[in-house]
Amino acid sequence: MALNSLRNNEAKPLASGSLDIEANDDADEGFVLVDSGEDLHEEDFEIIESHPPYSLPLAQISYDESDQGLGNSSHRVVCGNNPKDQSVHFLKFNDNEAMLYCESFMGHLYSMSLLYGVTRCYVRYDENDKPVALSSLEIPNFNTFKHKDSQLTQESLKDPAYRTRFIRLLAVLFRMHEDDAHCGNITTDLQIFDADCAFWDVTCKVKGGRPNVDNVLPGHLISRDPETAFQLHEQDIIHFPNITHAKPWYFPSLDAVATAYFSNNPFTPQETALVKKLETCPETLDICFYEFLDWMLDISQRFRPLAQLTIPGKLTVKGENVIKMYCAKNDMINCEYWAVLPKMPLFHDFLKRNSDRVIHEILVRCHIRNMRLIADKKNAAVRHEAFDNAVIDPGRVIFMYNELVHAVKRSQLMTFSFASFSIFGSVFARSEEDIAVIDEGKAKELTEKSYVVALKMMEQEAEFGTACWSRFTQVSQAETSKVAAAKSTVTKV
User: Fold this and answer.
1) Per DSSP, what are the bridge partners of residue 135?
2) Which of 65, 227, 246, 483 could form a disulfide with 360 if both were Cys (CB 3.0 to 4.6 A apart)?
3) In which element (H, E) is residue 55 found?
4) Residue 401 located in a structural domain
5) b/e sequence 337-357, b meaning 16+ C-beta within 10 Å
């Protein structure tokens, strides 16, 4: 596809991913029985609105209606195809209408965050306009870490690109409060699917709590309050992925003594040991900072309109508006990161070493997201102002970055002032080696360069689709390295 057509917003949106369901010997772990009084009934949900833009007619997919689906899933999952282009899709049926919209939203969030190698789920409604299923494209060569012959190995993690992608997944799973990051939900090619347990501290209110775990009565061996189970702690960042304060039920670096008792989904002890060792990799913390910053500077700025594109505005659960619940939770998480990161010396060092590189990479992602949303708007059957609101000005990202730099400087000044007063009774002069803000000239330069890179990646996307994350990682890293090598011209303040 020519660059001119991309500039004219003629790129077609390309959905990626699948709802392939891995063999699951613990199919009864389907959140049917809830010990915490969270049983949800049809009258708990209220939908008063036409379908949001990211909902499509079920009639577009041809499938065998008598197919009972995969017997190892707690939901009926069947394979179908789109007769128009013969693409293969998986349909996941669910009687919990609210959960269909929520899972679709979280799948789109994963897609927005990671950009490539992620499912993009769409709610499908029947001839009576009733939402009945989710659909997503088939994942090529689908396989997960659940099989003995496809477990995570030291050899695979020696590949820098594979290791980087794996750490990225861990960081995004952590940021999105994912509660179900087990070996059957991540493919061996490091693609993500089945997003129905992200933002678990909110999603559990829609889906129902995890049986025998969430808000159970006192005296139980295991009891967890989802509202407080994912709170951010500086030590979890410093030692990532070896988290000890956050309490997701499934996470690749967590020892699976309790989870293994309930299911065969956890990673093996050998795999968990490999994941734990990633803490010692010099790039681990930098990769985490990139992902956390991406959410702080970009994704959180467009979070509400993204929800509006996927979830009906008047959808409520037990009287609470679902979009408001997710937005409030994301605001709370975002505030935690804005409170914790600027105070971390390791984060200060990261910004000093990577200022141009960081903002360039995030701006590339910003442009790609904007281009996809503009294309989605053009091709959507439903017109919605949220498309326009979800497209953010790259200047907003740069503004937020400068705000972050000022927050870091305030934190440094307070630290230095306290230390100086305590020891010497005066305030030392600040170090000449300082973190730089981005001035107007530099902002224009970075915006233009990142836009060119985003166009190149969109050309690749138009030709190859979005499933192959490695292709786009190579392009992004090569272009970002050029920026890092260039002489910095930022303004000191």
Assistant:
1) 91, 122
2) 483
3) strand 55-57
4) yes
5) beebbbbbeebbebbeebbbb
Q: For position 473, what pLDDT does the model report?
A: 74
The verdict on residue 493 lying in a domain is no
Collapse the DSSP code of 233 into the 3-class scheme (helix H, G, I; strand E, B; otherwise coil) and give the result. Answer: coil
pTM: 0.85
* Overall size of the chain counted in residues: 493
Q: What is the pLDDT, as a whole number, of residue 171? A: 98
241 in the same domain as 385: no
Give phi and psi for 46, each to the nearest 5: -135, 120
Whether the Cβ atoms of residue 458 and residue 368 lie closer than 8 Å to each other: yes
- Distance separating alpha carbons of residues 391 and 397, to the nearest angstrom: 12
Exposed e or buried b per residue across 155-175, where buried means at least 16 C-beta atoms within 10 angstroms of its C-beta: eebeeeebbbbbbbbbbbbbb
Give per-residue pLDDT as tens, 100-156. Answer: 999 999 999 999 999 999 978 999 999 999 999 999 999 888 999 998 899 999 999
Q: Decide if 29 contacts 100 (C-beta within 8 A).
A: no
Q: Which two tokens stand for residue 329?
A: 């939770």
**Within-domain flag for 404:** yes
Residues with Cβ within 8 Å of residue 213, at least 6 apart in sequence: 222, 223, 224, 249
Q: Write out the H or E segment, with its range, that includes residue 136.
A: strand 131-137
Same domain, 314 and 255: yes
Taking alpha carbons only, the member of 255, 239, 241, 103 closest to residue 168 is 241
Distance from C-alpha of 398 to C-alpha of 400, rounded to nearest angstrom: 5
Backbone phi and psi for residue 467, each to the nearest 5 degrees, phi listed first: -70, -40
- Residue 490 placed within a domain: no
Check whether residue 346 and residue 359 sit in a common domain. Answer: no
Full residue range of the structural domain in which residue 393 is found: 353-485
Q: Indicate the residue type of 126.
A: D
Residue numbers of the chain with a pLDDT score lower than 50: 1-43, 45-48, 417-432, 487-493
Q: Containing H/E element for 90?
A: strand 87-93
- The pLDDT value given to residue 218: 66
Residues 60 and 98 occupy one common structural domain:
yes
Position of tokens 């200047």? 395
Tens digit of each residue's pLDDT (9 = 90 or more) over 281-316? 999 999 999 999 999 999 999 999 999 999 999 999
**Considering just the CA atoms, what is the radius of gyration of the chain in Å?**
23
User: What pLDDT score does 237 carry?
Assistant: 99
